[in-house]
Structures
1.
Amino acid sequence: MTPRQASLLLLLGLTVAGPVLAQAPAAAPSHQGNRVDYRIGARYNGETHRLEGQETITWTNGRGVATSELWFHLYLNAFSNNRSTFAIEGSAAHEDDEWGWSRIKAIKVNGQDVFGTFEYTQPDTHGAAGYELLGKGSKAFLAEDDRTVFKVSLESPIEPGQTAEVRLSWTSAIPRVRRRTGYKDEFLLMAQWFPKLGVFEGEAGWNCHQFHPSTEFFSDYGSYHVTLNLPEEYSGKVGGSGVMVTSRTKNDDRIEVEFEAPSPNDQKRVDMFGKLPVVHDFTWTADPKYRVEEFQFTWDDWKAKSPAHEDEVKRVRKALGPDARIALRDVKVTVMIHPERLGQARRHFEATANALFFYGLWFGEYPYEHITVVDPVWGDNRAGGMEYPTLFTAGTGLFTSPDEYRPESVTVHECGHQFWYGLVGNNEFESAWLDEGFNSFADSEALLRAYGPRRSTTRYSRLPFDGVRSASLPSGGRLGDVLNAREWKWDFDLLDGLPVIEKIAHGVVRPLPSSGMVDWWRDQPFSTLSSQWSDPRWGDRSGYLSSADEDPIDMDAWTYVSRRSYRANSYPRPAVALRSMIGLVGYDAFLRGMRHYSRMARYGHPVPEDFFDAFNEGAGVDLSWYFKDAFQSTKTIDWSVTVHQERAEKREGWFQTDGGRFREIEDIEKQAAEEAAEAEAEAVLPGTEGTGEGQDVLADSISDDLAAAAAAEPAEPEAAGDSDEDTDENDEPKTPWLIQVTLQRRGELCLPLPWRIEFENGDPEEGVWTRDQQLKKPWVRLRLEDDRKLKSVVLDPKRRYYFDGDMSDNQWYADGDEVAPLRWAERVLNQYGHLLHWYGGIGG
Ligand SMILES: [Zn+2]
């Protein structure tokens, strides 16, 4: 155990859980340093969309340093005006009902009123990197109107190990749903809705970032007790993190519901890693229109659900060894869904169960007794696709099927966040990729196992049809619009100035505006659509290629150069980097590394280095070089192979022979032939053996190569089957093949690259272009001389890596596939034929 690892254990407050400890209730705290417990009471007014709240926060300083400040998030203020950091970096709302805010009315710490020290602050823009570049006369933009972070000062500091009690009351205006929080009609999704403590990090101070459009959240672990007072219409239609412990009707047409997260049972049950469950957020939802469906996930049902499920249990068992505990706990699944999509409730449950099963199998059990799946209100998907502890929102559509992964992909992804975000609580501001990237990797793996390859569809007015167009429709500016009969536009500038004519000199006609019905009509018959099935893992690769080298993966989420770079580097690129690690160390070691990290970091706040260290330790490898290159640099790779193959020329000229004499090749060959004939004649006489002298002369007088060529008589088996190739009309032996294979790398990412070479009539040969060799030189050239013709060269034949920017040059075949292009050409022709026919019919 290195000091680095020891400090990680200490930081996370973890015990090294052996089998004995795992069985017994752990007395040691299982969460990271600080602990925070919330008791919240809130009353919602459905007419004004205002919320009045009070909360008591019990916070224990778990870092070895005293603090005389407390920092808080007020996330709803991101929506308060068009000068918040959120508005400036993203987009401000302009609809009146889309503004939302929170205002603190009172705050006391340990009974002392500290409201007088209340101060808003903007830690990410004040003194942030980049501002020193500004010239003297320029005024740095500091987002001074951002109100998403505030702090208070304390007279007496909170010492290490001490607990402080914070009481505060506030009022919020709830916005119409934005960025996954707010109302729409009676529908409520209340996320990031209460004043929330930042994370104290000891010497580094408070970690409490402004709300940026490309960041999510970060907070300490603990428990929540929440009491909500709501209009009576919400009775039976409220869901929240943890479980509802009481619900009662009040005498003023209102109800009061109480939630606890984790549930009272969960707070007493040690999970399979020997830790007591905690959570780091609380979210609730309510809608009188909800239909509430209950299901049960059980390990026994799911481990035998399909051959793919059974196989994965075997693989994990093999990787982790016979003693590892892999059985998962049963979980109650509540689906809150709108009536028009009730038919999808079971599919949401199955997708949730698949995520609980595969993620639990790989990264350790989901430790809570309950999970809530929310299907957000129709027509406002801004509430969809977001994760909270033991509750998440899914995405939806009216017409969907599992084999196009709808809504399954969003459900699996958001449920997967229970593991990466919920249980492993990385800082989503600073390392979004630690949860989004890990989750993107795992959701593709789970989807493929649970649902097989993904079917591609084309949608007309939201209705899915099997297949995709073989070729894209004409597009690109005015010409594309004209070819598609979308828009005809004319400008006759010369006619400008002539009063009547000017009116007709410029005009637009839109014969066929884009619409589902028209597109559907145009693409008939659907036989021109080609059926397409894809592997979600390759989907990750195409996402990664959209921004492969603009930024390193490992960056603060709001500092990527663009939204595109943020997305690529937080989701698909880390997924590709993780998947390629299976290629480097094998599935078993990979799984051990990931599971070890998951166990170490559960209920903790890991930083990237904690992942790198824990993976190396768990997998028993040292991939430090890889973590640097793949996660902390912009290095990319494009390998390629080129082959040059031709028959060696016949020998010409003067060759030095035995004794140093130069002789012309014709001479040498003539003598060799005569001697060979003599030797043959001698050999046929019974009882007379050749002296061997003749052969010696032959062997000495010409090179081994030529001898080999001479020996390759037409009678040789390989030539018999392929006589055109190996002999010419005169039946003269052919010269050997001279083959030149060049492997090349463009880009700086060096990974050990397997290759496979196959000759005609031979077993394939395999090898590796090592990382060291690649670091020394960006290419390597093999020169071969062989009687057999080279058939193919393939780089990374088992597709271990997903990094290569252009895979079309990773293989070489002596014979091209002439059928595939024809097949595609046929299809494209067909599609355009129909298209032209359709254009011809317009107006007819
Ligand atoms: Zn996500």
Note: The chain is about 30% helix and 25% strand.
2.
Amino acid sequence: MPIGNERQSVREQYGRETGLTTRMSIWQPPADGITPQDIAVEILRAADPKSLLEIGCGTGLLAERISRELPGTDVLATDQSERMVELTAERGVAAQVVDADDLPFDDDRFEAVLAAWMLYHVPDLDRTLAGVRRVLRPGGSFVAITNGDHHAGGLLAAAGAPLLITQFSSENGEAALRRHFDRVEACEVTPLAVADHQRAQEYLASFDAELAANLPPYEGERSYPGAVTLFTAR
Ligand SMILES: C[S@@+](CC[C@H](N)C(=O)[O-])C[C@H]1O[C@@H](n2cnc3c(N)ncnc32)[C@H](O)[C@@H]1O
């Protein structure tokens, strides 16, 4: 299942937004209605940073929300994909093409850094985390969101696919962060993927067309639990 060590390269996968928006579209908030993005915004609101760097910003949804809800925070959104940067800039957010493993910023430049669902993609996780530590001012907050090994496991199993085990997950993320940060806190969230057969197939096809073909037909909508963790490191 291509996510960390993709058959389809990361650059190819995010050269256009189609796959990402398809994947995002089937997720609904957990029973309490509080999404990982809501929690990230509240953590950042409490930290009240004057400057925030987002790495791997994708289409810029979260960067736009942070800019709107935290007007005192100067947000710079970055991604390796030119198309993602273009989409983010269209939302009125300052955006720049940047590889997360080679951050072109001075030491201690930002009061907060955000990495949402992207650390499982970077070619050298420790290099990226060391770079984040370097550009983050001492006492600043690093917020990282990622999926657990069982994220959408029911849907993958229905298509005969194994779990997605990545280099930065709910299970192994804290250990990775502790190699670079003194304090790490984790918060678990369980969103639900809700999809009829066609949407479930589209979700699977955004990773691998073969998987979509393997999903046995079903009527109506089904719900598949997700597993998401939000880490805060300081
Ligand atoms: C799963 S998407 C998440 C996008 C966004 N953060 C969100 O929550 O919707 C992963 C994003 O990370 C970007 N990305 C992957 N590897 C990267 C790297 N080494 N440097 C910068 N961006 C990267 C991809 O281009 C893509 O936009």
Note: The first helix runs from residue 10 to 13.
